[in-house]
């Protein structure tokens, strides 16, 4: 299986030579096969300049998905919700909603078993309790409500604005929820099988590029190929021509591969045995097992009788694996390392090219799920709308960190200066918490007296004065910044406190 790429493309498979051959005369019905060479469209050029984000803070990455308009609308609809329910306006503001979510992110990072513990006398967390009272937090949490579709559209808009890589994958994702919900699904085989099902388009490094929440059989307009194929065709609407698509056996059909290739999108996926064309004469499982681990056979599309350029490959590892692809086949094979239970040590196993490409590019959605599982905002709730909102806030944070991590690598930023995921979330939570605080006496507008009052001087009761930390100053002082914890002097001739913070 040797694809031919149009001019201007740079694929490693261009240098592959040789046609697909069977393992021996018994397992291959035709050893003298013609070379299979589909003509594929050119790959898209990924235009993304990380230098434009060199000085971005976590909240600037986050604002690509959740901007100030989201917080303004959340405040408006939360006030309306309580007014309709109780006849009293909460008078919350966008700044307070920011603080609310900053507290929620901080709570997710610390992981106390009960929310009330963050305000309890023995387990109090000052960074949280000083920003909002416990009763106020629960009041906002109880009435925070918004139609889910607008926030989904805003997060999706941020995902669509990202540069698309050459290879993308499509898979299912579950928003865990066991309460009442009109679109709740049960998906067996998932770690958390009950909840809202989301079809996700992601890059191999876990960056979410597009998504669609499944709402039943009317979610997709095109239904003739089935739900799985309809989901793929919906996801690839935002993918440029020439991108390579990867998906698993739930989605893969011959008709879907044909439809994608007609759009200029080569695709690869595992395929169910009952979806393989009957004309495809592949050896039985027992025969491959007899020949040993690493045995593979590939059959080209013109021998199967299908219309699109297609190769179906069967590979035996611990068990048989069936692959269908319009761009990759058996050759060129490489060697992979596997554990042998029988021999009790690692062994070298031959691996077809299609298996290698699938393994390298298919795990993006699973990686995204893994990142979402760390420090998730998953407090108990009976409202599916609240669970969906918190899930997509977590998606925005995860996407922000993955993009930040990629930028750091591209900019050759030292590891010691690059935030890990937990540190990134804590910095983001602090930036959200530093929004102007409300005056509790009126709960309508932030007090001008307290606006931005985070870095304030305080006089320390110490035995000896400390050296001023401002660059170039050798004076000693008893004055320290309440936020930075740095000793800085303020004198008639020199204001190191102001110079340091500017």
Automatic annotation (TrEMBL):
Residues 57-401 form the PiggyBac transposable element-derived protein domain. Residues 1-51 are annotated as: Disordered. It holds the Pfam family DDE_Tnp_1_7. InterPro entries: PGBD. Residues 1-33 have a biased composition (Acidic residues). This is Si:ch211-255f4.7. It comes from Sander lucioperca (Pike-perch). The lineage of its organism: Eukaryota, Metazoa, Chordata, Craniata, Vertebrata.
